[in-house]
Structure prediction request, 809 residues.
Amino acid sequence: MTPRRRRMIVVGLILIGVSLATFLALTAFQKNLLYFYTPSQVAAGEAPTGYPFRVGGLVVQGSVQREPNSLTVRFSVTDGTSTVPIHYTGILPDLFREGQGIISVGQINASGVFEASEVLAKHDENYMPPEVADALKQSGQVSTSYKDYQK
Amino acid sequence: MIAELGHIALIMALFMALLQSVFPLLGAAQGVPVWMAVGRAAGRAQFFFLAVAFLCLIGSFVNHDFSVLYVARNSNTALPLYYRISAAWGAHEGSMLLWALIMGLWTVMVTIFSRSLSQEFLARVLGIMGLVSVGILLFILLTSNPFERHFPPPADGNDLNPLLQDIGMTVHPPMLYMGYVGLSVAFSFAIAALLGGSLDSAWARWSRPWTLVAWVFLTFGIVLGSWWAYYELGWGGWWFWDPVENASFMPWLVATALLHSLAVTEKRGAFKAWTVLLAIFAFSLSLLGTFLVRSGVLTSVHAFASDPARGLFILVFLAVVVGGSLLLYAVRAPTVKDRVRYGLVSKENLLLLNNVLLVTAAASILLGTLYPLILDALQLGKISVGSPYFASVFGPLMTPIFLLAGIAPMFAWREADLGKIGRRVRYVFLGSLVLGVMSTAVFWDAKDIKTMAGLSMALWLAASALLSLWNRVRLRESALQGLKAQSRSVYGMTLAHIGIAVFLTGVVLSDRYSEEKIVRLAPGESSTLGDYTFTFKGVTEVQGPNFIAQQGDFRVQRGDRDVAEFHPQKRIYRVQRNTMTEAAIDPGLTRDLYVALGDRMDAGAWSVRLYYKPFIRWIWLGGLLMMTGGLFSAADRRYRLAIRQAEVWGESAAEKTA
Prediction:
């Protein structure tokens, strides 16, 4: 084998390896993209059914209800215009409380309830998830207190 | 007063950094020895002023000077002294000052341990490091001055984020920054070599110990961060593929590739241009990590600070560093020729494969981390990339590394005899396979192919690393002599590769056999998880220095035997009114038991998380082994003799160490 042919083989192998890796990566990537929807978008039916996505907003005051003797919690999130009801079974994060901005991952079921697999609240009471801040802004409910915090 | 002193010291440090960069670089270009000599003194003076500034900041914290905005935001009169000191780097401004301080520390180290470098080369290295310091110090002074005052001062401070009131988070940032910033040394060496046109094996040999030490710190920092997330966040996980974790993992992967590629450059004079490129990438990714974490662009538990001006500054800085060095690379690299020939089956090619895999892994993390940000910036929608993506990309990429890392040292440079190696390792290979399958079947599940594959791979990796060592040892008359004859870097490499095996064991077993249960428990009730029975005795109220806690009391039994008592807490920090979960963990080499309180339910009942995590400690143990391996390699004797031998690298190529 001449050095030139040998080099071609090495280059070829690397090329095959890299394209295989890229293909695998992009396939996995496509499958794991989670889109964010505001409660208004969900209410307008823009969110996908049968596919997980994220929804976020403020937890509606007085909406948190626990089912007795189970770990299931029901609550709603709002962007000021629309609200989305959420069911979640498990332990809520430390900073989950009414009026707090949260993000939830899950799917919407046939009756329009968001079945959450994960609820995320930030570990800083003054911190607003950027998605939630934007959702509030879009619906004209700019919450200024969060902006003031840093200054 | 103290704060003003700190501010002035910071400005002085900036001037010193300017001196340190301008004169040596001009001096090296023009050949003026006096100018070049400025670098060393200016570098040390820069560190002195930074140390003064940092002490001033700590002083302000200790004295509760709430007229300093940064102190007011991150401290409180009730905060214990220990956390008042660590609060100095608990938020954005102070941690950037820490970054600069560590940069100064590395600069001083370079001025001390560089007697063997040529004056011109040292001047260039210090000049480049000075430029980086100038950038960071400007950033601090213009956008994030920790000494900013505000009047009237508040009566009391806002307190340190409760998550950071913890030993793990005290040590984690300095260690991680030591790693991040340490990569600037490798970067400066690479740029200096490009500038001077001296890309040779001597350069690689100088650069290697610095890269190793930075890598050791980076490894330690990541291990600490993972350990902290495990016990502090209360979710029982050790890695979340959170963008901030990714930000520290990308430079680690590239630095690991750099270490291996430096070995080839040092021993064989090959891969020169590639090594330079890796050094540039490693440091650029460190800067990117700082940018990602500190600009607040991420939706993440870590993104405490957010200010677009800062983000823009770091982005421009990043563009200058990456763009400038890549431009220099583009101009100079074509003149660098590898004249070394090697066969298809050779150590060179295996190390090339290692590099390709590690860099591909880093690139796929970069894709998953930056893609959502880019889409968001272009207003194309808000997405996030789920962690299954990272896991599914990582498995296939790491498998060849697990399979080859152990035996690669057995391959000869230039041309290796595959048949000979195959004959030498076949029994070890079969043994690992059988042992992996058998032990899984006996201890866990006879049908669990994944664990069998994982354990066999870990056993094979450890055994083949030892076999490679034995291969060197047996060349001597007696085993003892052979062991003595091996250099520290050989032991370091063996240890680090065994560390990967230990890590892999921990990942596989904790992933496959962890048990988790979320239950509702009233006092007196119990719940079983695996062989363990957790009994909930009730909750009492406990007072901390700056928090009130509900403390649970759990007893755990295995059969009739008492195993442990758990006292997990739900803390409420008085100032910020934040709730924090403090998990209680009973650690063990083969399993951790983990209890965290959830929410208070009706009638004195609580929701409780119970975990059984087999072999999870092995994950961090593996990381620590890799780190220790790095330390051994960095302590290798030949780096202290570096220069005398550097001119005759051809001689060292014969000695077959990687």
User: Anything to note?
Assistant: Residues 3-31 of chain A form the longest helix (29 residues). The two ends of chain A are 69 Å apart (CA to CA).
